[in-house]
């Protein structure tokens, strides 16, 4: 049973209205932040700002969002009353911690040592973050529980991952994005990150759709 099912029916409608207002406010803040950052990047890409301060600002924003994500997910775990929800949020928070740790190491190497090459353990940290994010998403109560449904979900995820790798590989090779001296390992690393992003986006979309279907069924029962 999810946390939504624990809310009394008479309070669910008022909470839904307040949730819409909160969501609209969050969207407005996100849009303002996006426009502000787009303006900043436009000036930076136009060589109107020194590169060193731009790098510092970029990494500061990136790391702030990483650690803020950790706090939000830990807060969500603390406020949840369902055991499976708490487990899912803990896995997501662990993934955010792994990502923030790897990103901090990358920022130090970039800003302090002026190096863009990352050691294997940093890539390993990001890889662990992706695995923890995926494990957290499929741990939510709305995730499929029947064996056949879980196999179907796994097949969909694998299909998107392989398709994404094939498309990205073809695009990179076709457009000459890879330098001739780029090793196969580096090529795979470059392609693996966006492919992993596609997997997480697909999983989140499937679970969001399932959650909406559950909510619609619950409202009809009320």
Describe this structure in words.
By secondary structure, the protein is mainly α. It has six helices and no strands. The protein has helices at residues 9-45, 51-79, 83-111, 120-138, 147-175, 184-221. Helix 3 (83-111) packs antiparallel against helix 4 and helix 4 (120-138) runs parallel beside helix 6. The chain is globular and about 55 Å long. The chain starts with 8 loop residues before the first helix and ends with a helix. The mean pLDDT is 77.
How would you describe this structure in keywords?
mainly alpha, 0% strand, globular, 82% helix, 222 residues
Rounded to an integer in angstroms, the radius of gyration calculated over CA atoms is 21 Å
How many β-strand runs?
A: 0
- What is the 3D form? globular
Distance between the termini: 16 Å
Oligomer: single chain
- Tally of helical segments: 6
Secondary-structure-based class equals mainly alpha
Gist?
Helix content is 82%, strand content 0%. It is mainly α.
Helices and strands in order:
Blueprint: H1 9-45, H2 51-79, H3 83-111, H4 120-138, H5 147-175, H6 184-221
